[in-house]
Structures are given as C-alpha cells and as structure tokens.
C-alpha cells in the first residue's frame, strides 16, 4: 500500500513537471516564432509576416506573444491590402484589450482600413460613413494623439467624398428632369455638408431648378445664400448665377 502511494505521488509529480516543461517549451516556441515574424517585417515580407503572426495567435492563444502578434498581424495584413482581415483583428483586439497602451494605434488601423475601402463618389458610401465614425471615435478617445491629427485630415476627405456622392445622385436626377429627387439630394448636402466644396454647387442647382419651375421665392432663397458666401468673384457658380440674373 505504502509503495503504491509513493508510486502514485511520483507519477503525479512527474505529470506536473512534464506539464511545466511543456509550458516553458511552448513559451520559448512562441517567442522564437515571434522573432521569425519580426524578421519577415524587417525584410518587408508582409505575406509571410501575417501568416507567421496568425499562426502564433492560433497556436498560443493565452500567451503574451499572442496579444503582441495581433498588433503585428494587423499591421502586416494592412500592408498586404487585406483590409477586412485587418478590421477583424483590430476589432477583436479593441474588444479584448481596451486599456492596452497600443489601443489608439489599433483604433487608427481599423479606421484607416475602412478609409482605404472608401469607394469613389459614384458608389454607395457605407464604408465611407463607417470610416468617418471610427475616426471620430478615435479623436473623441485620444484627441491629443498623433493619430487623432491625421484622423482629422481623413475626416475632411471622407466628408467631401460623401457629399460628392449625393451631388452625383442629384445631378443624375436633374438630367432626367426628376426634380423632386434632385432637390432632395441637393438639400441633403446643404443641410449636412455646408462645409464641403459641394455646398456652392448644391445651392446653385437648387436655385436653377426652382427658377426653371417658376418657384421664384425658393429660387431667390438659394441665390441669396450663395451670393453671401465668401467665394472669389471668378467662382464658376457665382459666374453661372450672374449670367442668369
């Protein structure tokens, strides 16, 4: 009986020791794999880099190397123009490590990935609007960071793109003489994007449509607002307006 107990104790200790050794070996392996990934980054081999860090995330999910690999995996996927994958990784990181020192960078990487998928003005701007919201969220959380400053620049470009989209739709309906739909889109710009380059054109087109329809009171409202804008005299919408007066 005593020998049996000794053997059982020895077996239990052996299992604990073996498990501990395996954990140490796993950590060493994760570290060595992480270092391989860093070499891929150094050589700008972003495809191999993303594959390496993804494998670390999958194989060593509860190690410090997994968390660090998520940051570098997102970066490598971004460099490979794999924006949906970048977004997925950054959102997972943001949800699981909201207080991490790298959270601002991951928020920026998520926003810039949406930004890179922003379509031209002839297509739906759903990705543009998501990019806008993510940049605004980043600024609200980290208004004094270097990423916030770049985010402000990106927001201006996004707003121009979205306003341009509604302008394209408005022009389309105007050409088809579907004036109600045209006015709706031009008014959307006037009410929501008065700070963009599309604003003067939207005012002019509203003026021209109402003038064409004989609704002079509404036409005059748009004209007066346009004339009060601080625009150079050679602005083409002012020129077009003066030609009609």
Descriptors for this entry?
single chain; 80% helix; 245 residues; mainly alpha; disordered N terminus; 11 helices
N- and C-termini, Cα separation = 112 Å
Beta strand %: under 5%
Work out the number of β strands.
0
Structural class: mainly alpha
Return Rg in Å.
29 Å
Number of helices: 11
Q: Could you report the average pLDDT, rounded to the nearest whole number?
A: 86
The backbone outline, from C-alpha atoms, is elongated
Question: How is this structure best described in words?
Answer:
It is elongated and about 80 Å long. The chain contains 11 helices and no strands. The N terminus is likely disordered. Helix 4 packs antiparallel against helix 5. The chain is mainly α and 245 residues long.
Show the helix and strand layout:
Layout: H1 2-42, H2 46-59, H3 64-79, H4 83-96, H5 103-116, H6 126-141, H7 146-175, H8 179-192, H9 198-213, H10 216-228, H11 236-244
Provide a compact summary of the structure.
The chain is an all-alpha fold and 245 residues long.
């Amino acid at each position: 009986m005593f020998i049996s107990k000794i053997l059982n104790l020895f077996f239990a200790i052996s299992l604990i020791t073996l498990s501990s050794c395996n954990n140490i070996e796993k950590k060493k392996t994760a570290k060595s794999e992480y270092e391989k990934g860093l070499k891929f980054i150094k050589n700008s081999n972003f495809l191999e880099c993303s594959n390496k860090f993804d494998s670390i995330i999958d194989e060593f999910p509860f190690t410090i190397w997994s968390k660090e690999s998520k940051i570098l995996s997102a970066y490598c996927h971004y460099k490979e123009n794999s924006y949906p994958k970048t977004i997925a990784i950054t959102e997972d990181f943001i949800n699981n490590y909201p207080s991490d020192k790298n959270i601002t960078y991951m928020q920026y990487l998520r926003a810039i990935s949406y930004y890179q998928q922003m379509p031209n003005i002839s297509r739906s701007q759903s990705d543009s609007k998501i990019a806008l919201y993510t940049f605004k969220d980043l600024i609200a959380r980290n208004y004094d960071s270097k990423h916030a400053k770049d985010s402000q620049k990106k927001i201006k470009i996004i707003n121009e793109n979205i306003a341009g989209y509604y302008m394209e739709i408005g022009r389309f309906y105007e050409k088809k003489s579907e004036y109600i739909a045209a006015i709706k889109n031009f008014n959307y710009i006037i009410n929501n994007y008065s700070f963009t380059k599309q604003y003067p054109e939207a005012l002019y087109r509203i003026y021209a449509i109402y003038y064409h329809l004989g609704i002079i009171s509404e036409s005059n409202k748009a004209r007066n607002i346009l004339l009060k804008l601080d625009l150079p005299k050679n602005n083409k919408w002012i020129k077009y307006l003066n030609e009609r007066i």
